[in-house]
Amino acid sequence: MSTKAVISLTTGLEDAEKVTVAFLVAVGAAETGKETLMFLTKEAVRLAVPGVALGVACDGCPSLPDLLKRYEAAGGRYYVCPICFTAKHLDANNLIAGAEIQGTIPMWNWVGDEPATTFSY
Fold first, then answer.
1. Which of 89, 90, 101, 111 has the least C-beta neighbours within 10 A?
2. Is residue 16 within 8 Å of residue 47, measured between CB atoms?
3. Tell me: the pLDDT tens digits for 77-103?
């Protein structure tokens, strides 16, 4: 059984429900003891900037700030695509807790040789 989870997220707040689902999966993995990494690409890189992941996606959904707090508290990490981040002219010195500018090779190194459960949104 794998002890690591990787959640790949390409969507930002243009689809807040998809972002919420990705975070629910990530929080579930992290809170059940899996080492968890979210790989943020495309518009999702904006979520690594403080003050962006705000609001509630749907009636009855948890708020995005609450999901981010739970993910951080459970030890969740983010790798933020450097190409996507740079293309959007964002500040690499202004990231949320647990976020690092890292690409695909560091992601594969993080996974290592053991199995990992993956989800893509």
1. 89
2. no
3. 999 999 999 999 999 999 999 999 999
Amino acid at 41: T
Question: 106 to each of 51, 56, 95, 103, how far by Cα in Å?
Answer: 26, 32, 18, 6
User: Long-range contact list for 31-34, CB < 8 A, 24+ apart?
Assistant: 31/70, 31/74, 33/3, 34/2, 34/3, 34/4, 34/5, 34/117
Assess contact for 43 and 10: CB atoms under 8 A.
yes
Number of folded domains that form the chain:
1
Tokens 């959007």 correspond to what residue?
A: 88
Residue 40 belongs to what domain range? 4-120
Q: At what angle do helices 16-31 and 64-73 cross, to 10 degrees?
A: 20
Looking up tokens 């992941």 gives 53
CATH at 35: 3.40.1260.10
The reply to whether the predicted model has a pTM over 0.90 is: yes
